[in-house]
Amino acid sequence: DDDQFETKFGRTDINCGMVSTYEKDVKELLCSRTAEANGKSQFISQFCPIACDTNCSPTAERTAGPECSDDDQFKAKIANKDVNCGTVSTYENDVKELLCSRTAESNGKSQSISKFCPIACETNCGLTAARTAGAECSDDDQ
User: What is the pLDDT of residues 109-119, one digit of tens each?
Assistant: First the structure.
């Protein structure tokens, strides 16, 4: 992992060490985000491959499919407010990131809001990655 990597998640400064401490849903959300650090803009999973539990050297491409659309049936109550994917998309980024990392129940499913609303939460849905081992599969020391 890149020892120099640091970014913000909501109002919280995070680094690779902190990423590894989050629960699976939050970690997946973080690792699928892009960030800028050390003059590079890339997925957090590329800065922190060990913390994100990823194979190294991702080559990503988008695929269209049903997993890459907001669930129009999703409705939940968060902090006494009715929430759906449309309302999620209206929040400021730091509030949206925190909201999207929360678990909610809707239509008999309990999962993170980012899974119900991948478009509204901007979670890089439909991203598939082919991974290869090699020299790129080492910690980024820069």
Answer: 999 998 888 88
